[in-house]
Amino acid sequence: MRALIAFVLLLAAGCTTGGTGATDATPATATSAAVLRVDVLQKLPHDPKAFTQGFELADGVLYEGTGLEGRSSVRAVDPATGHVNRQVDLPPHLFGEGITVVGDSIWQITWQDGVAILRDRRTLAEKKRVDYDGEGWGICHDQHRLIMSDGSDHLTFRNTGTFAVEGGVDVRAGDQPVNRINELECVTGQDGRVQVWANIWQTDQIVRIDPANGHVTATVDLSGLLPAADRAGADVLNGIAHVPGTDEFLVTGKLWPTMFRVRFVTSAP
Questions:
Q1: Buried b / exposed e across 228-246, counting CB within 10 Å, b at 16+?
Q2: Which residues 6+ apart lie within 8 Å of 207 measured at CB?
Q3: Most buried residue, 2, 100, 128, 197, by most Cβ within 10 Å?
Q4: Which CATH number applies to 2-14+26-265?
Q5: Phi, psi of 228, rounded to the nearest 5 degrees
């Protein structure tokens, strides 16, 4: 109970500093990339019916986008209890994907529908829609632009207001492309530099990417994070939410009954 209370207080005090179908994934390992391990600090409840596609913390609220046709939604969740405080469902024909907070709004993308939805952050109500080309997988906001994945090895940079393309970068581990980049989390470090943490679809791997050049700077293996006893009905690892003001993250997966408060560390267990 003391750990739960401490986490709630930490979230209240923190300030933000910060798919399906593609070519085969390339293991994101390279001699220049740090190899990190996951240090589990706390286990927290998560809706086992949520097909998690987007995951982001802001001002103590966990915003979650879920997928599958007829089951896609955007939610405002209490991160300490997993309780869904507010939910807005997408039209049944839309397959929801990643989400990201931009000021008092939220962008939500879709998989193969080519539709991005701008929402009011407080009510989750739709404000406008924008069409785009290609698939949508993950998205995050680096305080200046949107960074979006499409299941390939490419990240696209987009305007936060218009959603227009403003460049992009190919992701490489050494000289190898890193495919199936999925859910994204933009984190600004103490040095002011943005790093993008990304799930690699159908693996237990998270990578850290420098968006300035596309280089993978760290890898984390989360194999075994969800105990075998909890894996019945669960899908793949997907969902990274930085805990503002800390070096901690919440991570979960599609249809997982648990989310985990973790650190990614270099020290031996």
A1: eeeeeebebbbbbbbbbee
A2: 28, 33, 171, 173, 178, 197, 198, 200, 216, 218, 219, 220
A3: 100
A4: 2.120.10.30
A5: -55, -35
Structural domain spans, the chain: 2-14+26-265
Cα–Cα distance, 251 to 102 (Å, whole number) = 21
Helix (H, G, I), strand (E, B) or coil at 136: coil
Q: Are 140 and 157 in contact (CB under 8 A)?
A: no
Three-class SS state of 43: strand
CA torsion sign for 253, 257, 259, 264 is negative
What single string gives the DSSP state of each residue in 171-193?
-EETTEE---EEEEEEEE-TTS-
Kindly give, in sequence order, each residue whose CB lies less than 8 Å from that of residue 91, ignoring residues fewer than 6 positions away. Answer: none
Q: What is the pLDDT of residues 187-240, one digit of tens each?
A: 998 788 999 999 999 999 999 999 999 999 999 999 999 999 898 889 999 999
Local structure of 269: helix, strand or coil: coil
pTM, full prediction:
0.88
The token duo for 114 is: 């080519």
**Residue among 96, 143, 142, 144 at smallest CA distance from 119:** 96
DSSP symbol at 46: -
121-128's contacts with Cβ under 8 Å and 24+ in sequence apart are 121/58, 121/63, 123/86, 124/74, 124/75, 124/76, 124/86, 124/87, 124/88, 125/88, 126/88
| Sequence-separated (6 or more) residues with CB below 8 Å from residue 191 | none
Find the radius of gyration of the CA atoms of the chain: 17
